[in-house]
Amino acid sequence: MSPSSQLAIDARGISKQFGQLEAVSNLNLQVQQGHIYGFLGPNGCGKSTTIRMLTGLMTPTHGTITCLGLSIPQQAEQLRSRIGYMTQKFSLYDDLTVKENLRFIADIYGLSPNACKRKIDQLQSTYNLVPQTNQLAATLSGGQKQRLALACACINNPELLFLDEPTSAVDPQNRRDFWEQLFDLSEQGTSILVTTHYMDEAERCHQLAIMEQGHIRANGNPQALLAKMEVNVLEITANNLRQLKSQLSQLSQVRSAAQLGDRLRVLITKEINDPTQWLKQQCSTLDERNISHVNASLEDLFVTVTGKHPHNAGAPDDTHG
Ligand SMILES: Nc1ncnc2c1ncn2[C@@H]1O[C@H](COP(=O)(O)OP(=O)(O)OP(=O)(O)O)[C@@H](O)[C@H]1O
Q1: Which UniProt keywords apply (predicted)?
Q2: What is the pLDDT of residues 267-282, one digit of tens each?
Q3: Can you give the three-state secondary structure of 2-32, one letter per residue?
Q4: Residue 20, ligand 1, Cβ within 6 A
Q5: What percentage of the chain reaches a pLDDT higher than 90?
């Protein structure tokens, strides 16, 4: 098998122009079969537009897309039966019950009555929806709606799943359970592209892309991206954190200073060899007892790679991990 045939998604140089706005700009995206690939980025950075192009719902202005070996959008019809797509707003029919929603989708995919019954029983059991089988979708809790939406997206045993902010309406325990279910699917060979605003979710992905203003600013394995970060992360404990923050924020070597409870988390560029000494020089009230080195988090990475490009016209500044 050639390397490209092991890719569930291979998008090269794709762009999407809406009038004056380039919503997606020269984006390259390769997703390995069976991997969970996370798409992280602020509102409006182009994540949903990218998914729409990858699924064939929207034609790119430039670039080429291959999904599951099919050329998109030309072969989008063939792709449709092999993928699942869970949109931001759970696309459920409020006035149908759980079982009726599942049956409706199964009918669209043309499952035989026997296959339909088997699949619906299995999905209700996997996604813990048996007690709600006759309950109207409108009356389900956020977590139950999410599980039903995932069950609907899985009815055709998709080889590739697109999940657009699937956990935005659910509590931490439901998010955890949801991710366990994604890993079950991944282990069975399903490739998954998932958009999220949650750093803890991004950390769970095999691969991750951070997107901003239509560009991928960094991509790769989360741990590799953290290891390659261009900043040291330090935390300061002191009484005058607000004053320190405004003082440090003025310095070009400080990429970010943000308060977390009784600590100030400061990202200092690696050009500074000894950031503790440097901080002491900048703030005479600090001594070593106030300052500690801490491990970088994905949020630190996010802050470091975004916000450098105030205008949408900037060229991509990709960091490939
Ligand atoms: N059909 C369209 N016509 C014009 N502009 C559009 C269209 N679809 C999206 N856009 C614009 O493209 C940009 C990217 O939108 P997109 O929905 O892809 O962002 P996103 O990263 O998914 O955001 P969010 O996290 O808020 O869902 C936005 O500025 C949006 O207004």
Answers
A1: ATP-binding, Nucleotide-binding
A2: 999 999 999 999 999 9
A3: CHHHHEEEEEEEEEEEECCEEEEEEEEEEEE
A4: no
A5: 75
